[in-house]
Structure formats: structure tokens, C-alpha cells
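== Fold encoding ==
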Amino acid sequence: MPRKSATEKPIVVSTGSAAAVPARRKSTTPKRVTRNAEPSVTATTDVAEPSQDAIARLAYSYWEARGCQGGSPEEDWVRAELELRAK
């Protein structure tokens, strides 16, 4: 059975009329700090990405223009994505 570390502080429980709330100990492990990586600098940094909804609507319109038959949904999606990014 593991022994208590000598550095742990004892838990103090209030006997007042407050509602019984379990005592919580602070974690002894340090919290991880996440740092955001530097964004890569490209020629298209000022271009906003089109939303998935906008891409889906345009791809759907391509399918409708074909008479709701044939084609590839993936090709329609890529075509719509490229067209919206070009704007």
C-alpha cells in the first residue's frame, strides 16, 4: 500500500452548517503550456478560407446544373472550393 508523502498538506474539513462539499487537492504536476506555432507565411495569407457551407452550396449547384445525375461529389466539392478561394 502506498504511503503518504511527507510534503502533502492535511485536508481541513469545516464542521460549519455549510453544505458538505468534498475537499479538492491541487495537482502537484505542472500544467502544460501550449504555445501557438508561428503561422507559415505564404502568398495567400490575406485570403479568407471559404466556409464548408458555402462550398457545399456551390457544389450542390453544380450537381443541379447537370440535371441531378452523374458526376462525382468529390470533384464538385474540389471545383467549388477552388472557385471560392480564387475570389
About this structure: Residues 52-86 form one domain. Residues 52-65 form the longest helix (14 residues). The radius of gyration is 29 Å. The chain has a mean pLDDT of 77.
